[in-house]
Design brief:
single chain, 381 residues, alpha/beta, Aspartate Aminotransferase, domain 1, Aspartate Aminotransferase, domain 2, 2 domains, seven-stranded mixed β-sheet, 16% strand, binds pyridoxal-5'-phosphate
């Protein structure tokens, strides 16, 4: 019998039954009073969980649309922006901002490390930047940026809006907008929310909303906060047809988050990540992100000598676990394992056991039970 395939890539993540059920419901009119109430609850729930007095936007699209929406509402052509890039998705923000006619300065870290916060402050003192953009967890490196510390620095600059890409972080890594100085948080549905892909989610705090107002008319239409604010405040109104079933799915995800408690959810992710990372290291793999800056949502893992990437991932998939390949300079020598969202101990143990069986099949000695032992011990602490 074939193994069931667990999707352990860094998004989309496993979608739990009760969330799937929402997507299987009969679609109603977007003006249906029941749906309007549900949509309102989702918008309010996002603001409450991620703690902002500002606005939340939930629109059909992916994380990239959210990235674009985030920047389109707080800058205009010719503005200076600073991108802190810890990998592929930081670099995506560079390209996106350049396309928008922004003047982009970039500070890049070596992959697997972070840009020191002092370097960011130094750069901010050199020029007036209208926005600083940072990826909370870069999915290409497994590095987590110190958002709270960066937020403290950016707060010193009244004219600078702090935009955080939380696509691979939100609902797993701590993000409290107003308290952490995050002015715009952009994210998507398919990672730590455990919802299928298809929702672009943006939260904007008071400073970002003031900036939007000061810009007057902007070029972008679908992405304009001002078009969406009336809808998010009163979802009976229409601007673009909301993806009804995905919004129900997000409503169920938020219910699960509230039931678990967001603080407990953050703690669980830390525990799971550290347990997974310790277990992987016990098998001889190397976690590529430097200690102290490792994400809780995924691990980028380098192979030991003699393991072929394609062969490893093929056998692992046959053993029932799908992981993602490395990106760019990490391609071919590493894989990426997601461990975020609504996953329980069964997922973790099965994943680790499948990794061991794969290594065993590839001729690595004395691995069976080793990673599972470390993982279980760590999880039981
Ligand atoms: C950190 C980060 N930002 C942005 C994106 C882009 O999101 P999407 O693929 O949903 O457009 C991704 C996708 O994996 C991501 O990991």
């Amino acid at each position: 019998m074939k193994n069931k395939r667990l999707v352990m890539i860094p998004g989309p993540t496993p979608v739990t039954r009760s969330i799937q059920d929402q997507m299987g419901r009969e679609t109603v009119a977007h003006g249906d009073p029941g749906f309007v109430k549900d949509f309102k609850e989702v918008v309010e729930g996002l603001k409450e969980i991620f703690k902002t007095k500002g606005e939340a936007f939930v629109v059909a699209g992916t994380g990239t649309l959210a990235m674009e929406m985030g920047i389109a509402n707080v800058t205009k052509e010719g503005d200076n922006v600073l991108v802190i890039s810890h990998g592929h998705f930081g670099d995506r923000y560079v390209e996106l901002c350049e396309r928008k006619g922004l003047k982009v300065d970039t500070i890049r870290s070596e992959w697997g490390t972070i840009v020191p916060v002092e370097d960011i402050e130094k750069k901010l003192n050199e020029k007036n930047y209208k926005a600083v953009l940072v990826t909370h967890v870069d999915t290409s490196t497994g590095v987590c940026a110190p958002i709270a510390e960066i937020g403290k620095v950016v707060k010193k600059f009244d004219d600078t809006v702090f935009v955080v890409d939380g696509v691979c972080a939100t609902a797993a890594e701590r993000e409290c907008l107003d308290e952490m100085g995050i002015d715009v948080l952009i994210t998507g549905s398919q990672k730590a929310f455990g919802v299928s892909p298809g929702l672009a989610i943006v939260l904007a705090g008071p400073k970002a909303l003031e900036r939007r107002e000061s810009l007057g008319a902007i070029r972008d239409y679908y992405m304009d906060f001002e078009k969406w604010i009336p809808i998010m405040n009163e979802p009976a109104k229409y601007f673009g047809t909301p993806p009804v079933n995905l919004i129900w799915a997000l409503q169920e995800s938020l219910r699960i988050i509230k039931e678990e408690g967001i603080e407990n959810r953050y703690e669980r992710h830390i525990k799971v990540a550290r347990a997974m990372q310790a277990a992987l290291e016990s098998l001889g793999f190397k976690v590529l992100a430097e200690k102290g800056h490792r994400a809780v949502t995924l691990s980028c893992v380098a192979y030991m000598d003699g393991i072929d990437d394609a062969e490893f991932r093929k056998i692992l998939a046959e053993e029932g676990v799908v992981v993602a390949g490395g990106l760019r300079s990490f391609a071919g020598n590493s894989f990426r394992l997601g461990h975020m969202g609504n996953i329980d101990t069964h997922y973790l143990v099965s994943t680790m056991s499948a990794i061991e069986r794969t290594l065993h099949k590839l001729g690595v000695k004395d691995v069976l039970g080793k990673g599972v032992g470390v993982l279980t011990e760590e999880l039981m602490k």
